[in-house]
Specification:
By secondary structure, the protein is mostly helical. Helix content is about 65%, strand content about 5%. The strands form 3 sheets. It has a 3-stranded antiparallel sheet with strand order 1-2-3. A two-stranded antiparallel ribbon has the order 4-7. The protein has a two-stranded antiparallel ribbon with strand order 5-6.
Length: about 400
């Protein structure tokens, strides 16, 4: 066995049959037969090998370890088996270290999320969570009942006795109840997750708005006032989304404030932006392509008769009319319209030299004139004209 004065070396494991054990001598695998006892000179030699390995002279350390192993009668096969055992132990230790590191990172992330001070669950979320807990209790009771009946049936089959029809019917009903309880758990869990997600989204959106405004003001950027036109068309089931317009980043607002756009042109392009954002919010509208009308959506549009759906249809019809009119002016006008008036980009972000930026500005003015001309006419006139093109 290992001498008592040699506890400074790390043990990497013992062979399956206990014939030898492997130690780490400064990172060098040392194989010692279980029945052997090291002398004082051998222990001193191994300590010297550990010190040499620690200062980078690994080859000398390996030679010393090999010499001690030969003195102990370690065969080549035993040495190979010991090295393999040591490699497996080192790999296992590395995996454990990585697992601990991942766990520490996860704990730090969880703590960071807690530091963000997530809001307490709302009343709706708490009620939904309570419903999930009740459904989970029902599921556990149903599964326990199923296991009890299945155990009774298995016992009767083992004893080769006849299984009563009532017991089989009870087992079938219990399994059905268990499936229903499982479905209820999944349904209530989805509802609770959706409500919590909506609550967090609203909270993070509010905090992001405040933080964005504060940072923009610190950088000296101009914050535009949010008008009623900004809020129009932004009402969802969760409430009104309150946008923050940084005018120094909004190409449309910048052009208006510098006098490149008139009041009428700016108002027409603002109307286009509302329609553009509504269409980009997840509504699947096939008529946004100026090349033509998709007849496959006409029947689906007649299904929605509510006031909100009719209002959306009106806004989207105006969007299509404006894009059709601007596309008639040219491809550049339509591209600049969508980038500046729709996406809120700046003229500079489109790239190009000073001449290109001036050309893009003039193209946007022509697009604004076309949009203003469309908006001064009834919506049905534009629809009749587009249907014939």
């Amino acid at each position: 066995m290992i001498n008592q004065n040699k506890n400074c070396f790390q043990s990497l494991g013992t062979s399956a049959k206990g014939a030898f054990q492997v130690l780490s001598v400064g990172g060098v695998a040392f194989v010692q037969p279980t029945s052997s006892v090291l002398s004082g000179a051998q222990v001193s030699a191994l300590n010297g090998a550990a010190r040499l390995a620690g200062i980078g002279r690994r080859a000398v350390a390996e030679a010393i370890v090999a010499h001690v192993q030969r003195e102990l009668g370690v065969s080549g096969e035993m040495h190979v088996a010991g090295v393999e055992l040591a490699a497996a132990a080192v790999a296992r230790a590395q995996r454990e270290a990585r697992r601990r590191q991942v766990g520490q990172v996860r704990r730090r992330v969880v703590q960071a999320n807690r530091d963000v001070a997530a809001p307490e669950p709302s009343k709706e979320v708490r009620r939904a969570v309570a419903a999930v807990e009740e459904a989970a209790v029902s599921l556990r009771v149903a599964r326990a009942h199923v296991q009890k009946l299945n155990a009774g049936i298995a016992q009767l089959r083992k004893q080769e006795e006849e299984i009563p029809a009532v017991m089989l019917a009870d087992a079938n009903r219990a399994r059905t109840a268990s499936w229903e309880a499982l479905g209820l758990v999944r349904e209530t869990s989805a509802v609770a997750a959706r409500l919590r997600h909506e609550q967090l989204e609203a909270t993070w959106s509010e905090r992001a708005t405040v933080e964005t405004s504060a940072r923009a003001e610190q950088r000296g950027e101009q914050l535009g006032k949010v008008s009623a036109a900004d809020l129009e068309g932004r009402v969802s089931e969760e409430g009104v989304h309150k946008p923050v317009r940084i005018s120094s980043r909004d190409g449309l607002a910048t052009l208006f404030e510098t006098g490149k756009l008139s009041n009428g042109q700016y108002g027409a392009l603002r109307t286009y932006r509302i329609a553009f954002e509504l269409a980009s919010a997840g509504l699947r509208v096939a008529n946004l392509n100026p090349s033509g009308v998709s007849a496959s959506r006409q029947t689906a549009g007649l299904v929605a008769r509510s006031a909100s759906e009719l209002q959306r249809a009106y806004v989207l019809a105006r969007l299509r009319q404006i894009e059709l009119a601007v596309a008639g002016k040219g491809e550049r006008e339509l591209r600049v319209l969508r980038a500046i008036a729709g996406e809120g980009r700046t003229i500079r972000s489109l790239g190009g030299s000073g001449n290109a930026r001036e050309a893009d500005t003039k193209a946007l003015v022509r697009a604004a004139e076309a949009a203003l001309d469309v908006l001064t006419k009834p919506v049905h006139a534009g629809l009749k004209k587009s249907a014939t093109t």
